[in-house]
Amino acid sequence: MDKFNKKDYKKYSDKKVPNPPYLKNMLIAFLVGGIFCTLGQIITNILKSNGLDNEMAAAGTSISMVLIGALLTGLGLYDKIGKVGGAGAAVPITGFANSIVAPAMEYKREGFIFGVAAKMFTVAGPVLVYGIGGSVIVGLITLLLR
Amino acid sequence: MALKKIGAQTRKMENPPSILSYYSIVGPKEGEGPLKDYFDLILEDDLWGQESWEKAESKIQEECVRYAIDKGGLSSENIDYLIAGDLINQITPSSYSARQLSIPYYGIFGACSTMTQSLSLGAMLIDGGFADYIACAVSSHFSTAERQFRFPLEYGNQRKMSAQWTVTGAGTTILSSTGNGPYVKYITTGKIIDPGITDSANMGSAMAPSAIDTLVNHFQDTGLDPSYYDLILSGDLGYVGKDILMDLMKKKGYDLSKNYTDCGVEIFDKFEQDTHAGGSGCACSAVVYNGYVFKEMAKGKYNRVLLMSTGALHSTMSTQQGESIPGIAHAVSIENTKE
Amino acid sequence: MEYIKAFVVGGIICLIGQVILDNTKFTPAHLLLTFLLSGVILGALGLYQPIVDFAGAGASIPISGFGNSLAKGAIKGANEKGIIGAFTGGIEATGAGVAAIILFGYIMAVIFNPKTKD
Known about the structure:
The complex is a heterotrimer. In chain A, 79% of the residues lie in helices and 0% in strands. Chain A is mostly helical.
């Protein structure tokens, strides 16, 4: 194209892309995210009423929510929830589970070592790297400031 | 002296190769779309009895070539060359399909532009006197492309508004040195144009400038006007790219409002099928040409068409390295009469 | 009441995520990382725990809550066990969820096959 200006073209082409349904997406994300969190609260309360202390109840809730996310992914439902719910499905810990189970299932055909096990963290790996790495830095800073 | 060279990018066939037969296979979703009545075979499930989607894609392409050869009343020994391609790493679906077919094989990669790339090369080989029958074939598969270029299938992501849906299917055209048409008349080979788009979920914008460049060169080289054609069809620009192409072509003085559309726009119903910016993939244009266009040409609805598949020549690696997406488009004109 | 708090606060956190998704080129993977890091930073500054105390699961179930637990665990570990604790604290606090997801992920991969989207 003659006298092609890449910056102008990007601006021009961005305008050609229709806007997502902002309000509808926000509302559904709110509802779906809210439902997952309420479910987490219900599980926490059940665990606590069975005599678990706060810390154990929190750990138990994580395990249960992760199991729910994993199961919904296995049954082929989480991608549908994610399509509708957007961030409402991605941000809760069930979404984290989905991001690990989905590639694990997907790469089964490439074998259980270099497929399932190696690819399990293709999406969620960064979360662990920066999360755990960050926590160590936070710990070290705590020591320095003491 | 290249006698068939007219203009910078266009070649005119001296003895226009004839389209002997054609076949199209699509997946279940395409089989529910607006063009469902045109496809030769609609699969009920996209694994088609295979263990993996890659194997399924290979089978789809292989069967498509076999059906097209059958339909032309030939057998695979009659075919001089198979020119085929797809989207997957090292084009294995095409090569594994060719492994079964045992036809001399050129594997080509032009991303989603592969169908007209294959037709162009096939037409030149025949017009050059190197072959009598050539099978031009491509395939793409939503599930193989999705896991290679985007995310695992069970991953719950929301698709962007500019994102396109890879068509599952395959298309094959058998070109012949003799026959009653329709005929390949001109081919215009595209240059790579890179407008600097880095978002791989916005391929319509990335490919539109190359499509515009190829169209303009085609009209300049041949001296034809867009109104010469009954139908001008781009491959998979989708809604976003189609809009850009019509807009910018108008600014260059070419009016495409009457006879132009895009295969990616036509193949799905964006309201019913939630495909956002439309279809994409090698098969997107291939199944529309081999399913819809050639059938309607046989009925006489169209006599002169310009087919232009469009490709985005990036990889996941190049995108991650921040490279922009190079676009390409090859045009092939098909007419019912030889002269 | 605590269910309403969990619903509303959890919903708002996800709504913020949706605004980011719709206005940037972010994928859900970017979003996970952003929220996680926000959780780590807010947790380290002691700003996230009050939200958890108020909203319970509404703040702990979003991935930012995971980040908060990591930061909190690391601080606790550092204070109680010094330099070794700084390394182990974060993983100790979140180990249950991580171990669970590795096991469940593997089991799901064994049992189920992925299906295409429609």
